């Protein structure tokens, strides 16, 4: 169990290090290194998110039925690293868009893959999900510091090289060790989507997650640029972004114990309420101090909602169903929903930066309504 827990922690760290480069900084890299406008960069990012929504809901579950999960832990990092190098020589909008589409077919699949492994190993290896997931947050934090330090000396053009280093970490994690339970191929030959949608709890939780996680679109795509507009240096920008990750790390380190008896609906409701507060604050108070303080709410707006959904998967489904469920989650809540809201956020940011954040609160209204429905219809009081 100890070696399996360590391996999972290493994989979380490696992937989220790369994710900590790609998610908050790729828009800035496109603008500074490739010379595209913020509208063009938004279109490229949104296209990547849209393709990601396709690949995670179709390609990932299908491959997980044909190949062992252990094989996929090696295949996806190899292909992602090769595709990443396509970005370096390209300069036109259309060729960069093509590179983003190809990259988004493979690289984002590592997210549901790693999360699926964590959920499956909760059942097979009895690992503590929160303990290993906190190392993912540590990796994300390390990336923010690394990018801030590197770009302070070499400029935003160096972001891609930190991303390459992140891919190297993923390759190292992939070939370090593979638990025996992940080497087996699934005995099923079809993706179990029908059984997933038979669970009404899953369907409602999915819609709630789409709203809550999708509402982070402006923060992920424009948060770093917003700090630059406020006059914050790249080094300090990385430090401020890290406040969110530190709060996330602290949350995941205690979540297994603290929320052991909490209801899914209660966690979702707290997350949605915190999200409304967070995005409204950024609109009302466009200054560095408020931005930094609001970062602490990331533990609730992202981590709590994510933990609630992972708990639901653990309660609702068998191991063979989890990759498909994770694929849908990554596709819809962190792909398609974010894609649409990224486009909307781009137009709002052009009009007034604060509006890009305030606009996200409207996505939270259905999440709050559905959370009360989930609580009333599907969850008995916890004794």
From TrEMBL:
Annotated localization: Cell inner membrane
UniProt-listed InterPro entries: HcaT-like, MFS_assoc_dom, MFS_trans_sf
Entry's transmembrane regions: 7-28, 40-60, 72-90, 96-114, 135-154, 160-182, 202-222, 234-255, 267-285, 297-314, 326-349, 355-374
Coiled coil: none
Bilayer topology annotation: Multi-pass membrane protein
Keywords in alphabetical order: Cell inner membrane, Cell membrane, Membrane, Transmembrane, Transmembrane helix, Transport
Sequence ranges assigned to domain Major facilitator superfamily associated in this UniProt record: 6-357
Cell inner membrane is among the record's keywords: yes
A Pfam family it matches: MFS_1_like
Protein name, as recorded: MFS transporter
